[in-house]
């Protein structure tokens, strides 16, 4: 992998790690379900108008949109809105990798190697430690919601593997057409039109302007720029060489949250985070080389 591509991979990890701070800013103004609907609606309109259809079966696109888009961000946004620390959310969401391995074995008959099982066990041990720590601070529910977000992402991964899109970026952008309607409907039921309207009519406040900046970052930098660079790297290099760079995302997320938001993870959580990252890395390795698979866009 050329040095230039390594630097680009690190840049993408930084962009995606900072994405969690942008989500934090967005949730300071918008209710979580409404924020998720807006996040995808902003992408859906230009996608329908200007991006070619990715030439996949509709059911696979719907599966990806409902898993990766609707489920993941519904659970993640609610988790962060109800107290999940921003940096910790960037870490726990990496549980999507071992979840994908397990779901692939169950639904796609993919073989799970011993070192993948060992990695999954490490990641689960780390997650369980963090959950135990969170429960001690009466914050277990946000942790569980974040794990459900990771599980939803894993189900989206299965749809992507079945779809085998010829252009992963187009597939990712067209996925954004699926979540707006169900998330708007959930927002109406769970949050109510009054909360939606209030968040729109107060956009001129400092909090509102910060939220707009966060939303712009999530859509333009986190999704369009980040996924565009990542897709390019995946095309130029083996997937097994590029994928481990995604483990830098929680490192950036935890560090940025510590510096900019004043979040202070405990020593036990830091140790468990290292265990989770090691487990995800080990569980993501394959014994033999495989055809590069389309990488999914993170938050």
TrEMBL record:
<dbReference type="InterPro" id="IPR050638">
    <property type="entry name" value="AA-Vitamin_Transporters"/>
</dbReference>
<dbReference type="InterPro" id="IPR037185">
    <property type="entry name" value="EmrE-like"/>
</dbReference>
<feature type="transmembrane region" description="Helical">
    <location>
        <begin position="171"/>
        <end position="189"/>
    </location>
</feature>
<feature type="transmembrane region" description="Helical">
    <location>
        <begin position="61"/>
        <end position="80"/>
    </location>
</feature>
<feature type="transmembrane region" description="Helical">
    <location>
        <begin position="86"/>
        <end position="108"/>
    </location>
</feature>
<feature type="transmembrane region" description="Helical">
    <location>
        <begin position="209"/>
        <end position="230"/>
    </location>
</feature>
<protein>
    <submittedName>
        <fullName>EamA family transporter</fullName>
    </submittedName>
</protein>
<keyword id="KW-1133">Transmembrane helix</keyword>
<feature type="transmembrane region" description="Helical">
    <location>
        <begin position="33"/>
        <end position="54"/>
    </location>
</feature>
<keyword id="KW-0812">Transmembrane</keyword>
<feature type="transmembrane region" description="Helical">
    <location>
        <begin position="7"/>
        <end position="27"/>
    </location>
</feature>
<keyword id="KW-0472">Membrane</keyword>
<comment type="similarity">
    <text>Belongs to the EamA transporter family.</text>
</comment>
<feature type="transmembrane region" description="Helical">
    <location>
        <begin position="139"/>
        <end position="159"/>
    </location>
</feature>
<feature type="transmembrane region" description="Helical">
    <location>
        <begin position="115"/>
        <end position="133"/>
    </location>
</feature>
<dbReference type="Pfam" id="PF00892">
    <property type="entry name" value="EamA"/>
</dbReference>
<feature type="domain" description="EamA">
    <location>
        <begin position="7"/>
        <end position="130"/>
    </location>
</feature>
<dbReference type="InterPro" id="IPR000620">
    <property type="entry name" value="EamA_dom"/>
</dbReference>
<feature type="transmembrane region" description="Helical">
    <location>
        <begin position="267"/>
        <end position="285"/>
    </location>
</feature>
<feature type="domain" description="EamA">
    <location>
        <begin position="143"/>
        <end position="282"/>
    </location>
</feature>
<feature type="transmembrane region" description="Helical">
    <location>
        <begin position="242"/>
        <end position="261"/>
    </location>
</feature>
């Amino acid at each position: 992998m050329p040095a230039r591509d390594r630097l680009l991979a690190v840049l993408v990890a930084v962009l995606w790690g900072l994405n969690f701070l942008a989500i934090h800013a967005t949730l300071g103004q918008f209710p979580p379900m409404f924020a998720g609907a807006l996040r995808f609606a902003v992408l859906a309109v230009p996608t329908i108008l200007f991006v070619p259809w990715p030439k996949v079966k509709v059911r696979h696109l719907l599966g990806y949109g409902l898993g990766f888009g609707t489920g993941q961000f519904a659970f993640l946004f609610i988790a962060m809105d109800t107290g999940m620390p921003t940096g910790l959310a960037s870490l726990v969401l990496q549980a999507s990798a071992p979840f994908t391995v397990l779901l692939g074995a169950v639904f796609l008959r993919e073989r799970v190697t011993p070192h993948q099982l060992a990695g999954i066990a490490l990641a689960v041990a780390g997650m369980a430690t963090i959950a135990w720590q969170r429960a001690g601070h009466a914050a277990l529910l946000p942790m569980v919601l974040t794990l459900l977000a990771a599980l939803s992402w894993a189900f989206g991964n299965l749809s992507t593997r079945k779809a085998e899109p010829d252009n992963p970026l187009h597939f990712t952008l067209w996925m954004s057409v699926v979540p707006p309607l169900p998330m708007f409907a959930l927002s109406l039921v769970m949050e109510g039109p009054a909360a939606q309207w209030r968040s729109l009519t107060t956009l001129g406040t400092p909090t509102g302007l910060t939220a707009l900046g966060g939303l712009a970052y999530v859509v333009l930098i986190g999704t369009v720029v980040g996924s565009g660079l990542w897709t390019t790297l995946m095309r130029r290099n083996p997937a097994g060489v590029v994928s481990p760079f995604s483990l830098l995302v929680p490192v950036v997320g935890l560090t940025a949250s510590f510096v900019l938001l004043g979040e202070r993870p405990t020593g036990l959580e830091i140790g468990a985070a290292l265990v989770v990252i090691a487990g995800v890395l080990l569980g993501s390795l394959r014994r033999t080389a495989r055809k590069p698979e389309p990488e999914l866009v993170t938050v």
